[in-house]
Amino acid sequence: MRAARFIFLIALMQPAFADEPTLEIIPLRHLTVEQAITLVKPFLEKEGALSGWNNQLVVRTTPENLAQIRKMLQTLDVPPRRLLITVKQDRQIEQADNEISTKGEIR
Hints:
By secondary structure, the protein is an alpha+beta fold. It has helices at residues 2-12, 33-40, 63-76, 91-102, and strands spanning 22-27, 49-53, 56-61. A 3-stranded antiparallel beta sheet has the order 1-3-2, sandwiched between helices. The longest helix is centred in the middle third of the chain and has 14 residues, at 63-76. It is elongated and about 90 Å long. The N and C termini lie far apart (88 Å).
């Protein structure tokens, strides 16, 4: 079934090109196929084709455009940064602030 799907994807990528097309399968390390397609699609030449399969991006385009896409993916396909947010709540200070703000004197 997977082989049939892969052959179907390759068959879809047969448009006529002015330049000699290049078909390349680029393995993705950290991006999902959906993320990579979303990022690359606006930069793909209109004659090009783009698909994904098993954490791999299947690209058919001119060699120049392929070089641009590889460079872009090299920059974007990096491990996500980990961010740790710590929230600390000090109820004693909060309570003291409320007491100070509620005290008053009327003359």
